[in-house]
Amino acid sequence: MSAVAPEIAAAVTDVARIRTRAIDRVAYANDASHYLLTPDAVVIAADALEVGAILRGATASGTPVTFRSGGTSLSGQSSGAGLLVDVRQGFGRIDVLDGGRRVRSQPGATVRQVNARLLRHGHRLGPDPASEAACTIGGVVANNSSGMACGTVENSYRTLEGLVLVLASGTVVDTAAPDADALLREREPALVEGLMRLRERVVTNAASVALIERQFAMKNTMGYALNAFLDFDTPAALLAHLVVGSEGTLAFVAEATFRTVPIRPAIATTLVVFPTLDAATRSLPALVATGAATLELMDATSLRVGQRLAGTPAAIHGFEATTQAALLVEYHSDDDLALRELAGAGTRVLAAEDLLDAAVFSRDPVQRAAAWTFRKGLYASVAGARPSGTTALLEDVVVPVERLADTCEGLQGLFERFGYADSVIFGHAKDGNIHFMLTDRFEGARALGRFEGFTDAMVDLVLAAGGNLKAEHGTGRAMAPYVRRQYGDELYDVMVELKRLLDPIGILNPGVIISDDPGVHMRDLKAPVSIEPEADRCVECGYCEPVCPSRSLTLTPRQRIVVRRASVAARERGDGALVAELEKDYDYDGVQTCAVDGMCQTACPVLINTGTLMKRFRREDANPLVAAGWSAAATGWGAVTRAGSAALSVAAAVPMPVVRTVTDAARAVLGTDTVPRYSAELPSGGASRRSLGSRIGAPGVEPVAVFLPACVGSMFGPVDGIGATAAFVRLLERAGVAAVVPDGIDALCCGTPWSSKGYAKGHATMSARVRAAVGEATRDGALPVVCDASSCTEGFAATLRDEGVEVLDAVAFVASILLPRLTPTPVAELLALHPTCSSTQLGIDPALRAVGEAVASEVRVPDAWGCCAYAGDRGMLHPELTEAATAPEAAEVAGWGADAHASCNRTCELGMTKATGESYVHVLELLERATR
């Protein structure tokens, strides 16, 4: 608490939300930019009123304040010294209004989350940044985000309807309220007078008006949104639009209401490769004239990286990328006829170009998804391919489209002149907006001098072309010294006066946009640190954070990595005290509360699975006695599972508080990461798998698969049904299909209990036994393997990856093989369906929904769906992890009144049962009921 001013501490209603530990400050220090500023303290804000009280306290104590939500900003505007206020965790509400034509959101919701709510209404947000999976509404407003298609017409500024603002004085203002102007005049008379005075100063200066109109005709996030002085003449609307793009330096955005845009359903896409970057950029004016919705540019380095990635478009493969460049061209329309005309115009323009292959527009959603996944992850993918021990720095500029080819040529000349050999150019070419990336060790006089010289030359180049030094990534610290250069003394002075009006003593994000320090862009650069190879290529983009189960409890994957980097850096500079403090807290915050579910990898553009690193740490730190016990368990797993089942049955017959007292006592002695905590959702034990015999399903037919029933179904028995294993057997019988069960099935396991805990010897023992048993049962791969728990399916797939054996989840097998042979009758009106992290990674969620739709009139997957973090026994070892992970989904499901709840993994069913108070069963149990 010593790092927090008393005035601020008094403003926070729960001291537990004030974080001053080294691990918390280090975890929040990093954003996606190339800057690193470590806060003195972090506060997890609860609501707008509390933020107002915090700002009053900060004003009284002179404490700098930076707001952090998604942390995807690239110019240094979302990290700062002083107090960092987390406005993600407590600010996630989304309200869809007017049938989707408007939407109101708090700053912690991601663009993807908002668009998911709007999708069912046929609308979306106007801004479409590539980082939509992770960037949040707070940043979208603070940076005036745009993106691939929206240009200057559908960006944050143009689609904004109103904001709820918290001023530095603590005043809360709803700019869309009918009486907003009157209330603002009453509460902040000096501010209103000053704003109107500044407006008059701007609109009566012809030179200022001309400059503003010219620069804001293009994308422009350099400095403040001076165009608001021309567009609005009432105080509240003017204030709201001045705050757009102000990067947390004028006010806190507690809520934003947008006018949405209709989703155009007819879409045609192509990705074409030109011989050179110059050829690609010189084709742009003609393509822009055809009405293309997007024209995304990717240079040869981008293509080389893409050629090394799985799942990237076929168009970028089959050649050596040396000088080539690609354009991702897309047309949107409301109907097929208009789309054909648009795509036809594009085809004619491209036919005149010297392309590697002829342009073919496609409406295939799979091909489109592959192209956009590559493009949206391009920055992180390219940055992730950088040499270890270097930092990636991304800049973004805009010039008139007709000047883009010359500007790209000039940039390439600067790369060569300053020795940035591996630099990359890509971006939103339709708008003349390109991004370029430099990689280097930005430390030492030589490297910093080179970077400063490059930056100055780049500024000359862009301004000479009539462009803006920032198009959509915000001014931040990176371009703060050049704001005066772009706008001149008069308009810069207007910005300084605006900042002074709204933030009189300069507490809001100092050093960002307006700075007296001409070298602010050269300070606080991230020092490169090499760590374990599992995570070393992380670029700290933050894409992983929204899918992480522990994001609201301890650390996210990005934070796990940056804390590790901070620990290594501290060790290298001899700061043993910091190393010790970080490592002490990292054991729980980083290692123990990681669900190792792999969901971070599904969101990571460079496919980092932070759980793999946590498994390494668990393996390296494994208690020898416990590891020996788990090794012994691997040799006698059948007896272990039966003992576990029997213990659960005994526990179920004893009053729950008695059993919990026993487990809590054992946890106190042996550790919370060793002994599970007994809780009410745990059922009696299940039946032995051995009782299935060697063959299941219909008699008299040739078996088509080998069935490996999961041991979790044997240990944790059913509560409101017959269990997944029994349901699968009955479905086989009804469909006239048979399967075999390996000998010694009770002793087999997918190996996940050992791999997730880092017990390598036990895992090796079990893996060898599984491979032998499966090889015999499948006749060396002649039959596929089927498992009835998705996480176990994933585990078996990993174990058998090199054995030539196909591994299927029972849900996928049933959907493709059994369901066509069955005639189900719905047994539920509304099914709340919980996919699992494993079903997502296995790609079987469509099959899961198909089975769900066979048993219920309506199937809903919550918008707030996420991994439940039960993770085998992790939810029993650390119940707080599952509670935090499931809270948003449970709250959503609670309002539905669903009459059935299902998933596809026994422990996930237990986790969701505990979270919601509703009984979750395996979806195959419902299908079994539906086919009786």
Give the C-alpha Rg: 29 Å
Relative helix content: 40-55%
Instruction: List the total number of helices.
Output: 39
Gross geometry:
globular
- Helix/sheet category: alpha/beta
Give unreliable regions as ranges: none
Write down how many β-strands occur, each being a DSSP E stretch of 2 or more residues: 26
Biggest β-sheet: strands ordered side by side in the sheet = 12-14-13-16-17-15
Please describe the biggest sheet, giving its number of strands, its sense, and whether it closes into a barrel.
6 strands, antiparallel
| Termini Cα gap | 63 Å
Strand content: 5-15%
Mean pLDDT across all amino acids: 95
Structure description:
The chain is α/β, with parallel strands linked by helices and 932 residues long. Helix content is 44%, strand content 13%. The strands form 7 sheets. The protein has a 6-stranded antiparallel sheet. The protein has a 5-stranded antiparallel sheet with strand order 5-6-10-8-9. A hairpin with a 4-residue loop joins strand 16 and strand 17. Helix 7 crosses helix 8 (189-203), helix 8 packs antiparallel against helix 20 (483-502) and helix 35 (845-855) packs parallel to helix 39 (923-930). The longest helix has 20 residues, at 445-464. It starts with 5 loop residues before the first helix and ends with a helix.
